Amino acid sequence: MPDLFTDTLTAVAAPSATPALPRVDFLYLSEPDMIRAGVTDMPACVDAMEEMFHLLHHGDYRMAGGNNNQHGAVIVFPEDSPFPAMPKPTTDRRFMAMPAYLGGRFGTAGMKWYGSNVANRDKGLPRSILTFVLNDADTGAPLAYMSANLLSAYRTGAIPGVGARHLARPDSRVVGIVGPGVMARTSLEAFMATCPAIDTVKIKGRGEANLAAFRTWAEARFPQLSVRVVATDEEVVRESDIATFCASVPTGDPARYPTVRREWVSPGTFLSMPAPCSIDAGMEAPEIRKVLDFTGLYEAYREELPRPMHRIIPAVGVRWFDLVDEGRVAATSLEDLSAIVAGAAPGRRDADEIIMLSIGGMAVEDVAWGTHVYRRALAQGIGTRLTLWDEPVLR
């Protein structure tokens, strides 16, 4: 581990700020509070996610479901309902609960809860509005209730950074990105934190306004970068050292998912895929290393979902599991980032390997980064202390 990693952990060790029981207080952290407490500190977030992967590999965690590996629980709405007030199903409309426990020096439980509606954008709102509650793992009492849009965005972007640290060439210079949204920004921040030689970004998107906003942000945030708009997914991938697909698309028809074609991919490319993605037959080849962020997540999908799973869950790792079921990919060829981070499996072995990482998103990531930010807030006196009770009426 780098010294920065150890120093960061020491700086946010759990302070002794819990009031005497049975009084229960918790900290409310608004989005401005979260920013003051360092939620956008990407280098520290990458280090926290790396520590989380160590704990995953050694089993010191729990997520939802009997298998302890479920992504979470989701509420969706029917096409036809006899209840006129019930929400109508639209693209990505849902409510989602993602609970987890994470051990190690975190030793906390928590849950991200959010609602999502693509029509929010017409109201000046994000598509999803997220909150996170952090709990004491012993008593179950709340420790914090926090704004979680930035929390979720940064932990999501940090996972590609962990992947790049172990799987990209250290001298990577060119990044190609499909989709100029929030995920693209946080992924680029994480790549810059782990591959400091990057000097060029290619970006492809559908809307001129979004492309212009991304370009303005990237050039201001990283003045050393040359930012170039390209027209096709092929241009994004060709001659890129790191390529990532970050565009949201409707699920249900894998033919509409952005697809990586083998002829586009140069030797040594690292492909980071945190959004819908598919591959052509050439990318199924055994010499293409296929790395899952955490195998247990995909095994849980396999227990729960009908086949083919990729039409329901658009992660490329789910496609790999469908290919295993079809006999086209060997199950033993699928690798695990948590094992790589823990040193139980090799990272990049040579400069020419092509490595693809599937990123599915896990509740333990929110617990790791939420705990880190909460402890920073406590140490710095940030946030509003609220009282649940001085003494509980029901005992």
Account of the 3D structure:
- With 395 residues, this protein is α/β, with parallel strands linked by helices.
- It is built from eleven helices and 18 strands.
- α3 crosses α4 and α4 packs across α5.
- The longest helix has 19 residues.
Shape: globular
Mean pLDDT over the full residue set: 94
> What's the story with the biggest beta sheet?
8 strands, mixed
Helix-residue proportion: 25-40%
β-strand percent reads 15-25%
Class based on secondary structure composition and strand pairing: alpha/beta
Which segments are poorly predicted (pLDDT under 50) over 5 or more consecutive residues? Answer: 1-12
What value does the Rg take, in angstroms? 21 Å
Question: What is the terminal-to-terminal distance?
Answer: 45 Å
Per DSSP, the total helix count is 11
Q: Order of helices and strands, N to C?
A: HEHHEEEEEEHEHEHEHEEEEEHHEHEHE
Give the number of DSSP strands.
18
Provide the fold topology.
Blueprint: H1 3-11, E1 24-29, H2 31-36, H3 42-58, E2 61-63, E3 73-75, E4 94-102, E5 108-116, E6 128-136, E7 142-147, H4 149-167, E8 174-178, H5 182-194, E9 200-204, H6 208-221, E10 226-229, H7 233-237, E11 242-245, E12 259-260, E13 270-273, E14 278-279, E15 289-292, H8 295-304, H9 316-325, E16 334-336, H10 337-341, E17 355-358, H11 363-380, E18 384-389
Summary of the model, kept short:
With 395 residues, the chain is an alpha/beta fold. It contains eleven helices and 18 strands. Strands 1, 2, 3, 4, 5, 6, 7 and 18 form an eight-stranded mixed beta sheet that branches. Strands 10-9-8-11-13-17-15-16 form an eight-stranded parallel beta sheet, sandwiched between helices.
